[in-house]
Amino acid sequence: MTTNQVDGLSRADGVAREIFDRVGDKWTLLVISTLADGPLRFAQLKERVGVNQRMLTQTLRGLERDGVVSRTVYPTAPPRVDYELTPIGRELLALVTGICEWTRRNVEAIETSRHDYDARAAAPPRPVTGG
Amino acid sequence: MTTNQVDGLSRADGVAREIFDRVGDKWTLLVISTLADGPLRFAQLKERVGVNQRMLTQTLRGLERDGVVSRTVYPTAPPRVDYELTPIGRELLALVTGICEWTRRNVEAIETSRHDYDARAAAPPRPVTGG
Fold this sequence. Notes:
Chain A is mostly helical. Chain A has five helices and three strands, in the order ααβααββα. Chains A and B meet through helix 1, helix 2, helix 3, helix 4 and strand 3 of A and helix 1, helix 2, helix 3, helix 4 and strand 3 of B.
């Protein structure tokens, strides 16, 4: 990212942070991942994700509101309701999967780094700023 | 992501959520982006990001603790302190940039979707679950 891109971030950065907040939510991550292979009904999603009805409803509303998941009602009795990633939702899935895979690949390095950092923090103070 | 990958998420998912929380922070996003072109000193970062000293110190500590940013002290007088993305930090930069670019490309579609959703929400209630 160039400095110009950083400057350009200001227009969309509020929305970008909301997107990171949203995909940082456990249930959102799992719902997006679970919809990777195609549309699912509410009850199927509920079972596969292992989430209660209230949390799933709330998660799906957020994703539908952002246009990441679409909701289709079929006029059967009882009505059948399918949830599916939209085209922009599929793009987001690929990026979110990338960060999950990065974390999985590096989880040991991250935990080792945290352990070492905390051990150093217990040592005598050091100059933090400077430069 | 397959169902197995979703199951596998449980081991690293706590860390993944922390990473999303961290990169969802405005200053973290800006610091990672600003370090894209190479190492910078604290004062340079402070000026380019436009952040106060306390917030920058806090942001850099979090990134250094996770092993995403490295901190090098040169024994000059006064000491010079450089901050640089680590190899795993550069991988994360690419993924984070991808989500920022996705947001920038789709910010109008997301805002239109939210507007339409809120307009529909003001209409008579609909069945939310079912299926």
